[in-house]
Amino acid sequence: MSARSSAHSLLLVSVLAACAKSAAKAPEADPAKVQKLAAWMLKTIPVPAAVRDCKDSEMVGGATMTKVTLAALAEQPLEKRPEHDDYVNPPDLDVPAARLLVESKDLTVRRQATAELLLAPFFLVYNIDLVDTPLAIGVKDFKRGHVGARALRYDKKGSIECQNVFLWTNHPDKQAWAVKLSDKPLVDPAVKLEMQKDLRAQMLVRIAGLGAPPPKTTGPADDRHDRN
Q1: For 164-174, how does the pLDDT look when each residue is reduced to its tens digit (9 = 90+)?
Q2: Per residue in 117-135, pLDDT tens?
Q3: DSSP 11
Q4: What is the side-by-side strand order in the sheet with 123-132?
Q5: Rounded CA gap, 47 and 163, in Å?
Q6: What's the rounded Cα separation, in Å, for the pair 158 and 180?
Q7: What Cα–Cα distance (Å) separates residue 94 from each residue in 62, 77, 161?
Q8: How much is the pTM?
Q9: Are the C-beta atoms of 118 and 29 separated by less than 8 Å?
Q10: What span, in angstroms and rounded, lies between the C-alpha atoms of 62 and 56?
Q11: H-only helix segments in the chain
């Protein structure tokens, strides 16, 4: 190989390496932008009757997160209450960029996560309005109860667009199991924990179906209230 050819090859390798390095560098943005946006969204969470219902197609494709994570992004504390407990605000519902912003101490990682989060076409925040499941909060009351929540859709600027109201509860078998073991004056902490784990699992199943079309069957079983 001639000296000229060798020099050309080395130059080409250098150019390709520089291009690869440039392409690998993810875009960045100031985390303060997300902090300000999240604070506004948290401040403007609407009352249930104030917003229209979302269409099924509006529930899919945005950046999802729990209200607890939204508060963390806003750098604002939430009062201690069942609606803010981890088992009804599982991090599984947060997009990776939101989790990185909450958990990472690396400024570059945070800036890259900010840029990614701000590219979302919209934000979907899971807000828990009511936790009425006695055994899961340690109260000896055998009613099955329910958890009431809303998926709140915000546009890129943090303005509320629509909502989806939904309910879920413990699995009947898990409820029967807990009742059978609750023969003492106080609820066994192990039973309480298992009921919380089950509510978390049932929540994830419930949310997985929010963007699905309504059932095609007719009759009593075809009731949108079962889904909303």
Answers
A1: 999 999 999 98
A2: 999 999 999 999 999 998 8
A3: H
A4: 63-66, 123-132, 146-154, 160-168
A5: 10
A6: 47
A7: 11, 18, 20
A8: 0.79
A9: yes
A10: 13
A11: 3-24, 31-43, 67-74, 96-103, 107-118, 172-181, 189-208
